[in-house]
Amino acid sequence: MYSMRKFPLLLALLLAFAAGGPRTHARADELRYAVAPDTNVWFYASESEDSRLFLLPETYYVRVLHAGDVYTAAEYLENDPPYRKVMGYCRTDALQFVDFIPSRPFLRRQITVSYTLGGTGAAPGYEFADVERTFVYYGERYEHGQLYFYVLEGETFGFIPAEEPLDFERNDDWLAPPTVPSGGTGGEGTEKPSSPVWQIVLLCAACVAAVAVAFLVLRGRRSAGGKDRTEP
């Protein structure tokens, strides 16, 4: 026979189990991210159209520092040599804000470029005519029909000419999860994500089990009380 003292504990355990599980959504006090949903999201050095640096790699993210009405202060990549984060701005209406922490927010890519300084490599005095240099890739831009990559070498940022766009794997995690309004300013106005289906099912099962336990306990107590009244 169940005791009423055990019922609250059992109910608490069932509800705790139903509400458990991994949390994939970011809280309001956690880092916020926004994705570049297409190939037209610029990363700016300042809040000005004249300060365009490069186009963000499509489907990769910036870490949001502050979302304004027109521009969002953000940073891209992180300090993990040879990678180095850059701080700047993106157009708020060009980004798609998300309420989760992406597993692969930044494109971590290095490229090696070969330069020929002139002459023939086998000729005397041209032993170092062919030089290879490795850069960290950030994004690209076109200028007067020429494609350029925005890169980092050591502590120096700059542009190098390229023959064709860089090929890389796209993210698709931003397509399914709920998003927050692009004009948001942090935690305010954040839409609360709906609970996963499995949590709802477990919660319903826990409630049904709790009601069944309560019914059995109360029925047992009434039966015990009835015996007391009929015995001499």
Read across the widest sheet, the strand sequence of neighbours is 6-5-4-1-7
- Give the CA-based shape: elongated
Question: For the terminal residues, how far apart are their CA atoms?
Answer: 24 Å
Residue share in helix: 10-25%
Quickly count the helices.
Answer: 2
Q: Classify the beta-strand content into a percent band.
A: 25-35%
Q: Give the low-pLDDT segments.
A: 1-24, 183-195, 228-232
- Average per-residue pLDDT, rounded, comes to 76
Structural class: alpha+beta
| Largest sheet: number of strands, sense, barrel closure | 5 strands, antiparallel
Using only C-alpha atoms, the radius of gyration works out to: 30 Å
